[in-house]
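User: Hello, can you help with two protein structures?

Assistant: Certainly.
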Amino acid sequence: MFDIGVNLTSTQFAKDREQVVKRAREAGVTGLLITGTNALESQQARQLAALHAGYCWSTAGVHPHHASEWSTETANTLRRLAESEQVVAIGECGLDFNRNLSAHDQQEYAFDAQLALAAELQLPVFLHCREAHDRFVAVLEPWLPKLVGAVVHCFTGTRDELQACLALGLSVGITGWVCDERRGMELRELLPLIPAERLLLETDAPYLLPRDMHPRPTSRRNEPCFLPHIVQQVANWRGEEAEALGAQVNLNARQLFKLA
């Protein structure tokens, strides 16, 4: 089982990053993709991935929250990072009309620029979409023929939005959000609609700690070592064996990101 979304640069991991990776290995997680969310954190993500070469990789991108920071210098930084063997995707990029930490036009500009970069470099894209589905599709769709692959990270949308993403050929990343009885029930019902070869799983650590873990961890911090719980629960709700699902999502991640 491969965790495609780990925010290992987070200050929540400042005191024990090495132990976090070690616990993931011991839990049976087969690899980690460390998320880059702006120019600085993309550089930090690459450095962390290099410390665990062959087990960790990273993305390089600008999250829509940071879209106002986009510049030619940012683009050049991402392009330079993408030359590294550790960097296997452009992103996290996309649109977030929920928190609106950057203006909509800034978000769309930075998103489009990163899609262009991914097409130029022939790297898959690690996508973010929250309460922005129509504009997200409008910006993304013209680039799809030029992209080598894409995953909608931490998908939490509706049935119609899921079907639209699948029709576009996107892979779908599912997190512990689906383990939340307060807000994940609709998504839980959609799990069987995702084709096995298009499903990816992730913790989005340190966020989105699964609420249905027993016993519940003493800390609210999520970790990649909790991915097996997500795999087990998703397998149950899809009517599959957890071991087979873990092997499938590992294969899917390695194929999408072109990993050995």
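That covers the first. Now for the second protein you mentioned:
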Amino acid sequence: MIVVSSSSIPGHKIVKSFGIVRGNTVRARHLGKDILAGLKGMVGGEIEEYTKLMAESRDQSIDRMISNAEELGANAIVDTRFTTSMIMSLAAEILVFGTAVLIEKE
């Protein structure tokens, strides 16, 4: 599955559009990681625990979007975008969406 943020894929033409597909996940913070992050916040620098959590969340959301597209018969997703939102004080949602398409080589 080809997933791009652009509206086209070089060397390919879109022959069919299946519409919007999406994948999301809601993740809660972990108390142990919060303690480490709090300590890291005092001295500065990247909070690797949260960076890893967000990366895992993005990957899971992308996997779910790809599954949605495959169910429709697509072999690519164009115009892919990400958004995040806070669900509650301890949880956030990662949403990825795009347009599922069928492409052929030109």
